[in-house]
Design a protein that fits this description.
By secondary structure, the chain is α/β, with parallel strands linked by helices. Helix content is 40%, strand content 12%. It is built from 11 helices and 9 strands. Strands 1, 2, 3, 4, 5 and 6 form a 6-stranded parallel β-sheet that branches. It has a 3-stranded parallel β-sheet with strand order 7-8-9. Helix 5 links the parallel strand 4 and strand 5. Helix 5 runs parallel beside helix 6 and helix 9 packs across helix 10. It starts with a strand and ends with a helix.
Length: 312
């Protein structure tokens, strides 16, 4: 069991006190010590951009990417950036955890494909097309009035260019119609990095059964999210609710569409899995619910690794 977690907001937390908080050891849900405890193969690090901020979204993004690289340099014996499947395999052979760089908010490219290409050159390999606001690419599912609004013309260009470059298109947060537009326009598998089942928990951030089927047929994956509001109706994010979602998603889309997308350091803190170092709690629960070792491996890393190999 070598977890690949497709979403955390740890870099944002590091930025809150960037002179004193580092990636090796901290009080957050993700650090290198906890990743090692989990025997992690790779961790996706999201660069979240708040477009309501008065600052330029690209400037925010670049400053956070710099912090990411500062931490990579400081901890180069333990962790290294990975931009493709081969990097992950090489890093693992060298005893290093792989860090995959992602942007959570397509507004960071400011409506220009050359900015997208420059972020690719900086090592970004996944982009969540929208967060909770409208941007040049498309619409968020946060507002009900936007759920039937799809990709813009520029959004379609972004999909084509991300396909060409070899970048993961992430539809978590995107409007329902935007999801369907991506499924039609993308020629490569795409992901929902941190989303659950809308049938199990009615929430706009989760995927409908139809979406799960389409995502599965595309060869993509959805990362099970540990945010309590996307799981159930309790104050805590319970492992038993994660298992409910996984069982349903398996029934609808098959085992090959399920991955992990914790949303650690970006979600409510009341989670039975307190940090990435406790991820084995989910594996034990799945085992107790009749999942085979191979199925658990697929959920924990094999499915995500397959998509990385296919796309990046």
């Amino acid at each position: 069991m070598r977890p690949i977690d497709m979403h955390c907001d740890t870099v944002l937390r590091l930025m809150e006190d960037k002179e004193n908080i580092g990636l090796y050891k901290n009080d957050l849900s993700v650090d290198i010590e906890k990743l090692k405890r989990a025997n992690s193969l790779a961790q996706f690090f999201a660069i979240w951009v708040d477009i309501k901020s008065e600052r330029d979204p690209m400037e925010i993004c670049l400053e956070m990417i710099d912090k990411f690289y500062v931490e990579m340099d400081k901890n180069s014996q333990e962790i290294a950036i990975a931009t493709n499947y081969e990097d992950i395999i090489r890093n693992d052979r060298e005893g290093k955890i792989s860090a995959v760089l992602a942007i959570e908010e397509g507004a960071a490219i400011k409506g220009e494909l050359y900015n997208l290409r420059n972020f690719y050159r900086l090592g970004v390999r996944a982009i969540t097309l929208t967060w909770n606001e409208v941007n040049e690419i498309g619409y968020s599912n946060f507002y009900e009035e936007y759920r039937d609004r799809g990709l813009t013309d520029f959004g379609r260009e972004v999909v084509y260019e991300m396909n060409r470059l070899g970048m993961l298109i992430d539809v978590s947060h995107l409007s329902d119609q935007g999801f369907y537009d991506v499924s039609k326009e993308s020629t490569k598998p795409f992901i929902a990095s941190h989303s659950n089942s809308r049938t199990i928990k009615e929430h706009s951030r989760n995927l409908t059964d139809d979406m799960i089927k389409i995502l599965s047929n595309s060869g993509g994956v959805m990362g099970i999210c540990f945010e309590r509001d996307f799981l159930g109706d309790t104050e805590n994010a319970r492992v038993e609710d994660m298992v409910k979602h996984i069982k349903h998603i398996k029934k609808i889309g098959g085992i090959d569409v399920i991955a992990l997308g914790s949303d650690f350091d970006g979600s409510h803190p009341n989670c039975e899995i307190n940090n990435i170092g406790e991820i084995e709690k989910l594996a034990y629960a799945l085992k107790d619910n009749g999942f085979s070792d191979d199925e658990i491996d697929k959920i924990f890393f094999k499915n995500a690794l397959r998509v990385i190999k296919d796309v990046l």
